[in-house]
Design a protein that fits this description.
With 88 residues, the chain is of the alpha/beta class. It contains three helices and four strands, in the order E-E-H-E-H-E-H. The chain is globular.
Amino acid sequence: MTLKIERFQARVRLSRELRSEHLADLRTELRKCGKSPVLDLEEVNLVDIEGVRFLNGCEAKGIPVQHCSAYIREWMALERGRTKASET
């Protein structure tokens, strides 16, 4: 299954699976949004580790990640904790 990306003004809505091979296209769509993009993950059902890291990077840059499933949120938090632990 491939990732479906839909852009509505500053909102980028994702569906299906977010994998590392989709990140370049997703970055392009986010740039097209201008200064205040929003990521909507309501219909994302699978994410790989690079996708999780990308989502954490988006939030670190002030890009909201909305409608994210609980398992993805939990994985993002775990990965942030690992990153902080390795920095010390």
